[in-house]
């Protein structure tokens, strides 16, 4: 038993890489629409590279692992900064855009500020707790950055792993009208549905369900305007059922499902590329077996959209995420207490 324990401890990174890889595989096989799949996958990748880095011939991989661990912070910072700059150019000055840019610059500068602050406190003989504050903030940002990287990685993977089954129904998620007309963002979702409809074999083409109610500033329902767009794109009226009551994504799914008459239908949902993974998570919450396909989104809009999606997913799992953040705070306080006791 001692020998086995020693071998495990010596190869702990390999063991953890295998464990997390298996966890990712099993979790993904059971349901592709879970956020934890991305977390397991990123952990497996990190530990695998760390395991390879133990070999002298591949010691450079250890450097890669360290860089990957640190990279979580700048990835988040870059997204925030790009979002702030682009949205300032496109939409002008606003508190949200300025805040995004400011947060991005702070996150990017966090490692340098941490090193500078530690040196300054050592020279000035400042209290130990003062030097622990920037380290605590850095750890919290690093955790959020890690979750963001897992979300980004798995969103990319999910959007590119689609089933080859031809659907019975295609639900198109609404996103708002402009002067009663379909804007480019919504048109992309509809065009994706039209493409799926045309690619289906003759005689088994899916029924398209454009879904969206009427907002307070809209002259008609989104479902009605979307159905008109589909007809003008050449989709037969008999292949369209407009859903005109939904005001949220969950209502889009639930109200559209109520319009389906085929038993155990194969369902596809179309939305914008940035919204694919979160929409898939909504289908799981709705108890619906469905695949989500994404339409291309204007490049300038992607950073802002992904950030909003990430914030929504982060808050959806708020008890887990805030619990980890609390554990980080308590861990730093415990280390600080031990440091004081050592004096």
Protein traits:
alpha/beta; Rossmann fold; single chain; 343 residues; four-stranded parallel β-sheet
What is the overall shape? globular
Q: What low-confidence regions span 5 or more consecutive residues with pLDDT below 50?
A: 56-62
Span between termini: 40 Å
How many DSSP helices? 12
Short structural summary:
With about 350 residues, this protein is of the alpha/beta class. The protein has helices at about 1-10, 10-30, 35-50, 60-90, 95-125, 130-160, 185-200, 220-230, 250-260, 275-285, 300-315, 320-340; strands spanning about 170-175, 205-210, 265-270, 290-295. Helix 2 runs antiparallel to helix 3 (about 35-50), helix 3 runs antiparallel to helix 4 (about 60-90) and helix 4 packs across helix 11 (about 300-315).
């Amino acid at each position: 038993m001692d020998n086995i324990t020693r071998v495990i401890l010596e190869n702990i990174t390999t063991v953890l890489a295998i464990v997390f890889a298996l966890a990712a595989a099993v979790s993904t096989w059971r349901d592709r629409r879970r956020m934890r799949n991305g977390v397991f996958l990123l952990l497996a990748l990190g530990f695998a590279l760390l395991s390879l880095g133990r070999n002298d011939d591949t010691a450079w991989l250890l450097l890669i692992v360290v860089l990957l661990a640190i990279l979580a912070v700048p990835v988040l910072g870059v997204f925030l900064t790009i979002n702030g700059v682009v949205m300032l150019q496109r939409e002008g000055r606003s508190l949200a855009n300025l805040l995004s840019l400011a947060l991005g610059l702070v996150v990017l500068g966090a490692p340098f500020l941490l090193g500078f602050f530690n040196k300054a406190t050592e020279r000035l003989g400042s209290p130990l707790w003062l030097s622990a504050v920037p380290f605590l903030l850095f750890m919290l940002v690093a955790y959020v950055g890690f979750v963001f990287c897992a979300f980004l990685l798995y969103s990319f993977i999910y959007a590119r792993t689609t089933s080859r089954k031809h659907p019975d129904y295609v639900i198109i998620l609404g996103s708002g009208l402009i002067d009663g007309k379909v804007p480019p963002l919504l048109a992309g979702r509809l065009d994706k549905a039209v493409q799926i409809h045309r690619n289906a074999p003759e005689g088994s083409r899916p029924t398209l369900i454009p879904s969206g109610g009427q907002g307070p500033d809209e002259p008609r329902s989104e479902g009605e305007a979307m159905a008109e767009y589909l007809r003008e794109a050449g989709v037969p009226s008999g292949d369209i059922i407009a859903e005109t009551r939904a005001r949220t994504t969950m209502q889009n799914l639930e109200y559209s499902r109520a319009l389906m008459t085929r038993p155990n239908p194969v369902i596809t949902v179309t939305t914008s590329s940035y919204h694919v993974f979160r929409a898939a998570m909504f289908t799981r919450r709705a108890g619906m077996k469905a695949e989500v396909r994404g339409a291309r989104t204007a490049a300038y809009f992607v950073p802002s959209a992904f950030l909003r999606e990430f914030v929504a997913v982060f808050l959806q799992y708020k008890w887990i995420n805030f619990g980890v953040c609390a554990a980080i705070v308590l861990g730093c306080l415990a280390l600080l207490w031990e440091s004081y006791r050592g004096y």
